Amino acid sequence: MCCYVLTVNDQYDELIKNFLLLVKQELTVHDPQPIDSIEDQHIQADNIDLFLSQTDTQVSKFSENILAHGGCAIVPYDVQTRIVMTIPETIVSGKYSIRGSALGRKVTGSGDMTITIDNLNVIANGSFVQPDSSLQLDSLILGWDANDLKVHFTGLSVEGIAPDQLDEFARSIMVTAIGGKKDKIVALASVYIQSTINEEIAGKPLTEVIAWIKSLIH
């Protein structure tokens, strides 16, 4: 993993470098990552009304050849940070079954699914404050870009769509469905991650936070 940090001071430089190392380590440990089964999840978006079930699903390849960099800058009252990660390839695979309608066409099917995301970009913008001697993450805003998407579903049937056009049709449905939920997903993830980080570093000054992150790296 490549790490480049714009130096504010040695401590914040060290904080970001070690945080990126920890992220890389945790992604590697959890690759592949199983995903809980889903039964009859109702997916509703613009002209999409589907029920989807998934089993034996996992996410893989996401820890390989990650490019990451971080920077920070001092502004009045806090330290602004920005981390950008590019994951060259992420694969979601498993079993599926689906029924419903999309874009005015009846959709049914069951079988194997493979979803490949190339060049997934994840951006995190945050600000750290020290209300007393301890460090806290005052805000966190996440963003991601997953438009480079390829999908393949065996056993899929869509009314009026030829077999050689099914994957592209499924891709268009997925992009529409994800786009309709993206803001909500990002907001929930931002709140959860910020809360989790603050619980872990509660009461720790910057030097102790750095030491704690280092202790998790092996």
List the helices and strands and how they pair.
Blueprint (H helix, E strand, L loop, with lengths): L4 E2 L3 H20 L3 E3 L2 E8 L2 E13 L6 E9 L2 E25 L2 E25 L6 E10 L3 E5 L2 E3 L7 H36 L4 H11 L2
Parallel strand pairs: 1-5
Antiparallel strand pairs: 2-4, 3-4, 4-6, 5-6, 6-7, 7-8, 7-9, 7-10
Helix pairs in contact: 1-3
Describe the structure.
This protein is α+β, with helices and mostly antiparallel strands. The chain has a single domain, classed as Super Roll (Bactericidal permeability-increasing protein, domain 1). Helices cover 31% and strands 47% of the residues. It is built from three helices and ten strands. Strands 1, 2, 3, 4, 5, 6, 7, 8, 9 and 10 form a ten-stranded mixed sheet that branches. Strand 3 (38-45) and strand 4 form a beta hairpin. Helix 1 (10-29) packs parallel to helix 3 (206-216). The protein is elongated. The two termini are 15 Å apart. The model is unreliable at 1-8 (pLDDT under 50).
And the CATH topology? Bactericidal permeability-increasing protein, domain 1
The rounded distance between the terminal residues' Cα atoms is 15 Å
Number of strands: 10
β-sheet strand percentage: over 45%
Main sheet record:
10 strands, mixed
Shape: elongated
Question: Number of folding domains?
Answer: 1
| Mean pLDDT rating | 89
Number of helices: 3
Order of helices and strands: EHEEEEEEEEEHH
Percent range of helical residues: 25-40%
Query: Which residues form runs of ≥5 with pLDDT under 50?
Result: 1-8
CATH architecture assignment name: Super Roll
CATH class descriptor name: Alpha Beta
